[in-house]
Amino acid sequence: MKRDSKITLVTGAAHGIGKAITEFLVQKGEVVIAADYDSQGLEKYNSKKNIHSIVMDVTDSRSIEEAVIATEQITDGIDCLVNNAGLFFGGPLVEVEVADFEKIFDVNVLGFVRVTKAFFHLLKAKRGRVINMSSEVGRIAFPFNGPYSMTKYSIEAFTDSLRREFDFLDMKVIAIQPGAIDTSLPEKTVESYRKYLKDSEFEVEMSRVWTVLEKEKYANPIYVARAVYKALHKKKPKLRYKVKNNKQRRLLEFFPSKWTDYLIKNFI
């Protein structure tokens, strides 16, 4: 595995998985451009060697353009773009507000598209790689998790199409599919469900979500960071890296849809 130092731009770098990726890559001798809309969250990197903090809102084209200009002042090319910034909304599909759908797609899908397009010339300059943060629920959709799963299914399609296009340029595109990771996302998941729990047509069924969340085992985000490092340095990286995926949920992917529907309805 090649170990030369590379320049990587990480979105959503101030917290959670993005923070773990940023700190791990720097620990390994890499240079990281840490991008996030949370300027205060980025302050912890101000005194850190080999970390360049840039405020960037992935939903704001002007903000992205300014981030590109700031990056060009640091380097004339980047070796990797890690599209990681994301958020969560859950609830019954027929009850979730359209504004929530628009918000989650704006960040989780269009955010990836905007940033990739804007930084393409810097990636091309070094025949760099794109690493897209997907999810295990980008392969199987569960009830009341629809909005988030919809965005991650979209990222799977985005990754496949982009990878096949970038093949012509000898550039790699990789998806990371984390399972349950110990970040602020589980807490935000609970908040999201509570918003739609009261007076819901599915109140009883949604209440079962709490039991599932309580039993869930959340992995350290360092495992995702290690997968990103492998995807960055491997000459022939995997197309997808599954990180701490739930074994029972993975089994459901291989069952006929009717079986999966039955199991989810009666046991999950």
Structure, explained:
The chain has 11 helices and 7 strands. The chain is 49% helix and 13% strand. The mean pLDDT is 92. Helix 3 runs parallel beside helix 5 and helix 7 runs antiparallel to helix 8. The protein is an alpha/beta fold. The chain has one domain: 3-Layer(aba) Sandwich (Rossmann fold), CATH 3.40.50. It has a 7-stranded parallel sheet, with helices on both faces.
* Whole-number mean pLDDT: 92
Q: Categorize the overall geometry.
A: globular
Enumerate how many helices there are, as a single number: 11
- The end-to-end distance, rounded to whole angstroms, is 41 Å
Profile the largest sheet.
7 strands, parallel
CATH architecture grouping: 3-Layer(aba) Sandwich
Concise account of the structure shown:
This protein is of the alpha/beta class and 268 residues long. Helices cover 49% and strands 13% of the residues. Strands 3-2-1-4-5-6-7 form a seven-stranded parallel sheet, sandwiched between helices.
What are the main properties of this structure?
single chain; Rossmann fold; 11 helices; 49% helix; alpha/beta; seven-stranded parallel sheet; globular; 268 residues
Fold topology:
Layout: E1 7-11, H1 16-27, E2 31-36, H2 39-42, E3 51-55, H3 61-72, E4 80-83, H4 98-108, H5 110-125, E5 129-133, H6 146-166, E6 173-178, H7 185-197, H8 203-215, H9 222-233, E7 240-243, H10 247-252, H11 257-267
Parallel strand pairs: 1-2, 1-4, 2-3, 4-5, 5-6, 6-7
